[in-house]
Amino acid sequence: MKNWIEISAQRLAANYRLLAQAVGPETSVLAVIKADAYGHGVDLCAPVLAAAGATWLGVTDAAEGGAARSALADAKISKEQQPRVLVMSEALEDDAEAVIEHNLTPVVSSIAQMESLAAQARGAKTVDVHLEIDSGMSRQGVPIGSALQEVLGWLKAQSAVRLDGVMTHFSSAEIAGSHQTTMQRSGFEDAVQQIVAAGLRPAWVHAGNTSLIDNRAAADADAIQADESFCWLRKMAHNVGARAMVRSGLGLYGYSLPIGREQGYAGPLEPRVQPHLQPVMTWKACVTGIREIEPGARVGYNGTFIADRCMRLALLPVGYADGLRRELSGTSEHAGGWVMFGESRAAIVGRVSMNLTTVDVTDIPSVAVGDEAVVLGAGVTAEDHARLARTISYEILCGVKAKRVLR
């Protein structure tokens, strides 16, 4: 392999345990492995998280749920010991067969989705579902109002589909004192009360992501208690005889969004877990060539970098086809990204191309053909790449396409 990703099982397990400790024993953490575990590999991450104690995994769709089940079976984890698997994107009619086959728990928000599941089950079993409430994100979920009442009436009238959980998703959990989070929480609480009033008793109530865990102020903008960030969720779940759960994805892989501040919010900004998370992915590339150039030499497409001294360049077999963002290119006017050789930075010079990238090793004379450069990892994080590419760390991690190995 000329460029590859190393996934740290030890760090992944440690991050999960840190998140579980942060929410406390009365709240469960659903480990999100959707989008191929944010680019880290469902096949690698699902067994590690199961061994670390995860009782729930979250996947994108039924196909990814099947892949997770296969990975768990390949790791010799029995069906009885495997975590439950939540399909987080609303199921299509064609997904019903795979949901039943792989014993998945789908997120639903319409009667049509549940009718497909009931038809596929053919009375042979009861299908557990988690009903998503649109509490104000206007993306996925049943709106609060008449649509919710129709869904609850349908669930109450039949037995092929059972309401196992109710959930919502907060759009601004990383904003301390967020007015939108407060409004969404109020709407979600109202929906849960309507569900209970209809005679339905979910076993799980869940909301929030890594940012909700990290943001001490996210739980209650009016009464912040550092040790009670999840008091409101736990209390609501307890009141309806359910268990509280939060869903963490980004934090598992060593990152979290910076905590912002709602205008007018004067409370503390104190992340709960971010300082202790460890990046799980290390992306490496092997030097395939060394070249020395004279002052005035142009580097890469369109000659956007011009050497102002004698320079020594190393060639790395990695580029935008592998997920290395072109925005990391370095020009004579603007510095770009960098890679690491041990503790030393080597700046990217010239444009990142499809399969090749050139870095400046003039001041690192020991670098030779065959040496390993860290493209992403210690000394150069997904947040560094995201800042230069004007995006978020999620997109950086999900965009890496190199072959993955577990270490």
Please provide a written account of the structure.
- The protein is α/β, with parallel strands linked by helices and 407 residues long.
- The chain has 2 domains: 9-270, TIM Barrel (Alpha-Beta Barrel); 281-406, Lyase, Ornithine Decarboxylase, Chain A, domain 1 (Beta Barrel), CATH 2.40.37.
- The protein has helices spanning 9-23, 34-38, 42-52, 62-74, 96-101, 111-121, 146-157, 179-197, 210-214, 231-239, 382-389, 393-399; strands at 3-7, 27-32, 56-59, 84-87, 105-108, 127-134, 142-143, 161-167, 175-176, 204-206, 243-248, 260-261, 281-286, 289-293, 298-299, 305-306, 311-316, 338-341, 344-347, 357-360, 372-376, 403-406.
- The strands form 6 sheets. An 8-stranded parallel beta barrel has the order 2-3-4-5-6-8-10-11, surrounded by 6 helices. Strands 21-13-1-22 form a 4-stranded mixed β-sheet, with no helix packed on it. The chain has a 3-stranded antiparallel β-sheet with strand order 14-17-20, with no helix packed on it.
- A hairpin with a 2-residue loop joins strand 18 (338-341) and strand 19.
- The longest helix is centred in the middle third of the chain and has 19 residues, at 179-197.
- The radius of gyration is 24 Å and the shape is elongated.
Write a short abstract of this structure.
With 407 residues, the chain is of the alpha/beta class.
Q: What composes the largest sheet? A: 8 strands, parallel, barrel
Helix- and strand-based class?
Answer: alpha/beta
CATH superfamily label of the largest domain: Alanine racemase
Strand order of the largest sheet: 2-3-4-5-6-8-10-11
Q: Please state the average pLDDT score.
A: 92
How many domains, in number, for the residues?
Answer: 2
Number of strands: 22
Number of helices: 12
Rounded to an integer in angstroms, the radius of gyration calculated over CA atoms is: 24 Å
- Please give the CATH class of the largest domain: Alpha Beta
Give the termini distance in whole angstroms.
15 Å
Q: What CATH architecture label of the largest domain applies?
A: Alpha-Beta Barrel
- Overall, the morphology is elongated
What's the assembly state of these chains?
single chain
Helix content: 25-40%
Low-pLDDT residue intervals, each spanning 5 or more residues: 219-229
CATH topology of the largest domain: TIM Barrel
Q: In what range is the share of β-strand residues?
A: 15-25%
